[in-house]
Write a structure and sequence with these properties.
Elements (H helix, E strand, L loop, with lengths): L1 E9 L5 H15 L3 H22 L6 E9 L3 E8 L26 H9 L2 E8 L3 E9 L4
Antiparallel strand pairs: 1-2, 2-3, 3-5, 4-5
Amino acid sequence: MISKRRMVAPARHDQLARLASFAAAAAAEVGFDELQINRIELAVDEACSNIIDHAYSGQPGEITIEVSGERGHNLLIVIIDQGKPFDPSSVQEYVPSSSLDDAKVGGLGLHLMRQTMDQVCFEFGVPGVGNRLTMEKFVRGR
């Protein structure tokens, strides 16, 4: 079991690499290969970008990320913010387009998180917490 680790960062785009790297280090410790680590980084980057752009809409705020897991088994990532909540079901499902001209704006970040991680759970307005995104990824074939 890797111990639960926590990091708090300002909700700014210049902090995205730091937040994603924090999760990547835990993913490496759990035993994910480089490809899966890159995918986990992408999911965290997308989640935090959405928080910055939509929950906080460019206003000051913080993002808290907590990681824990069990070597060779799983990684649990919890991302917390106090921004504006949203309804994930209101975001149109991303449908790949054959042409960039036909591509619709929005939904790609949620799609990437759901495709990359094994479990994705959104909770909004959690008393004493705020908004909480929990993502879990299981190590396969070990």
